[in-house]
Amino acid sequence: MTGLRVWAADGVPEVVPGDDLAALLVAALRADPDPGRRLVDGDVVVVTSKVVSKAEGRVVAADDREQAITDETVRVVATREHPGGVTRIVENRLGLVMAAAGVDASNTPEGTVLLLPVDPDASARGLRRALQEAFGVRLGVLLTDTAGRPWRQGVADLAIGAAGVQVLEDMRGQVDTHGRPLTMTVAAVADEIASAAELVKGKATGRPVAVVRGVGHLVTEEDGLGARVLVRTGPDDMFRLGSAEAYAEGWKDALAAGGAPGPAGPDGRAAP
C-alpha cells in the first residue's frame, strides 16, 4: 500500500428508528456524481455507530443522562469531578472502556439519549451483506465511535463493529528495514481506518458514512471475528483502574492485611 483515498458520502438523511439504514446508505453512495467514487472490490465503508443506533431504535427517553450511564455500566474505571459535573470512565456492556459508557446526548431529540448498538459486529455484518448485494463487489464495513485514550489529549474514532475487515495486522516474525525481527508489533488497523474516515465525516457535518480505498489487502472474503477482538480484557488489561482509584484500592488492601499503608501518593490523596 502506497496511498489512500478517503471520501464522505453526501445525501444520508436524518435517521430515525425503524429506517432501513442499508437502503439509505446504498442510495447515498449511488448518488455520488463522481464516477471515480463508484464502489470497487476492497473498499471499506465506514459508518458512524450513531446512525446505526438510531435505525435500531436505541434512542431512549432519559431526563437524567447519568441514570442511562449507570444502566449501561458494567465496571467503573475512574470518576472525576469537574466544574461542569462528573466524568465517569466505565466499561460498558460491550466491554468497551469509554467516557459515559458511550451514552450520547448530542444530535438526539430533547429528553432522549442514544445508546450504542446492542451488537455492533452483527450490525456491521448486516450492512455488509446488503451493500455487497447492492453493488456486487467485495467490501469491508466498520462501525465507529469516538473515545479518549490514556496519556493522550483529545478523542479519536475507533472501530466498535467490523465485518470483512482484518482488524489486527500481526507483524510479529517480520523484520524491519535493518533486518531486526519484529517481536511485539500488532497494528490495530481497523482503528487506523476508522480515524482516517473520521477526518472527512465528523459530528457537525451531517456525513455519517465514508469510504476508504487503498486497504484492500485487509478486506476479507469472510466476515471475520469482528471488532470485539480489539478489546483488551482480563490479565492483559494493565489499566483496570484510574490512578486515584488504584491508589485507594491499594490503601484499603493494606489496611485489610493489617499493615501500615505508605505515605500519600503523588496526587496527595488521603486515606479513604
UniProtKB/TrEMBL annotation:
Pfam families assigned: F420_ligase
Annotated InterPro entries: F420-0_g-glutamyl_ligase, F420-0_gamma-glut_ligase-dom
Superkingdom, natural source: Bacteria
Name of the protein in question: Coenzyme F420-0:L-glutamate ligase/coenzyme F420-1:gamma-L-glutamate ligase
SUPFAM superfamilies: CofE-like
Keywords noted in UniProt: GTP-binding, Ligase, Magnesium, Manganese, Metal-binding, Nucleotide-binding, Potassium
Organismal lineage: Bacteria, Bacillati, Actinomycetota, Actinomycetes, Micrococcales
GO molecular function list: coenzyme F420-0:L-glutamate ligase activity; coenzyme F420-1:gamma-L-glutamate ligase activity; GTP binding; metal ion binding
EC numbers on record: 6.3.2.31, 6.3.2.34
Domain Coenzyme F420:L-glutamate ligase-like as annotated: residue spans: 12-214
